[in-house]
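In pairs, describe these two lines:
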Amino acid sequence: MGIVLKEILAVLPEEGRDVVRRTDIYLQGDKIMGIGEEPEGFSADKVIDGTDRLVIPGLINAHTHSYMALLRNVADDLPFEDWLFGHIEPIEDKLTPEDAYWGACLAILEMMKSGTTCFSDMQMHIHQTSRAVSQSGMRAVISRGLVGSGDDEAGQVRLREAYEEKEAWKDQPRLTYFLGPHAPYSCDEDFQRIVAAEASKNQMGVHIHLSESVNEVENIRSQYGASPIALAKRAGLFDGLAAAAHCVHVDEADLDILKECQVSVITNPASNMKLGNGFAPVPDMLAKGINVCIGTDGAASNNSLNMFHEMNLLGLIHKGVRQKADCVSAREIFRMATIRGARALGMEEMTGSIQVGKKADLAILDLRTPSMTPRNDLLAGLCYSANGSEVDTVIIDGEITMENRKVLTLDEERIYKEISRICRRLGIEKE
């Protein structure tokens, strides 16, 4: 299908920085085929009028748990360990694969409506997020959450499940698979070594939670004589493409490891604040040259999967904590939500920016809104003013998946009904 975005304002990378300028953008099949000049032989099946519109690369949510959309507002105002082990895990144990599917559908619906075109998911029920992604038109990186001790059978079963899912969906071009060792408190060093070897053998990336809470760091140091980050390096998890979620409680030695090993850090400001875990030292990471990107975490700990909300928080909290208004800029944050997220997922050459030859993964915002008026610095507006409701149209892999704020690939009303049914069965939804 040929689509032209006619006379539209666009966020484009030019000489290492993003600029906003008016242009025509030509999409053919799944790719961006031209910017400014019409490609030879191009035929438009659809013209999208760019009047009062801004097109951006689709946002990339680099860390979430989509099935947890079922658990939104279930366990709030609780310390991290009580939240996870006392409330969330007991409910997770009751979830069926079908529950996880509908949770993923709800998550994708929310993400798409707020401009996300790709997400990195750590999940428990194989095939269910992949199934939802395949049907919705979304792009995703899926990691089966791995838990194990040495070469115990439970860990081996989860590894086999990860490979089973990867093999089953190998013909779906919008799906990629990482290995997901959950965290150092659920994967001992021997199991981390096993996962590292498997990732290397199969050329798969690694997605892990690290240094999220004070207790985690203290317990791991006591048990292994190393920080969670140093332990992961020692086990070999950083030998290839690796993305570490959270990294809140880190010291200078940890930062040096992350930089040396080219580990991408996925900061989750809302989740980290809400669970009382603190603030990742993002300005220090950026100063050191670490690739930092953004995730929402799951809706059980954030309560939102809206990347605009996350960008806004990230733009404010570090300025307040550091008492330094220029310690992180809107332009840096926008890149964290787009091209830096693509880099963390090994997709920098595929998506994350509006460039000829890249995938047509785009979000179009309506600028005729109070939040985006007046049109002064639109890049600053994306970080400090937009709330996601401005997203009018979403294109993923060259296909229009949302138009006039209506998601075309999912049955929104059925999703709401199924979620309500599941939550009543679990006893977590009030009538």
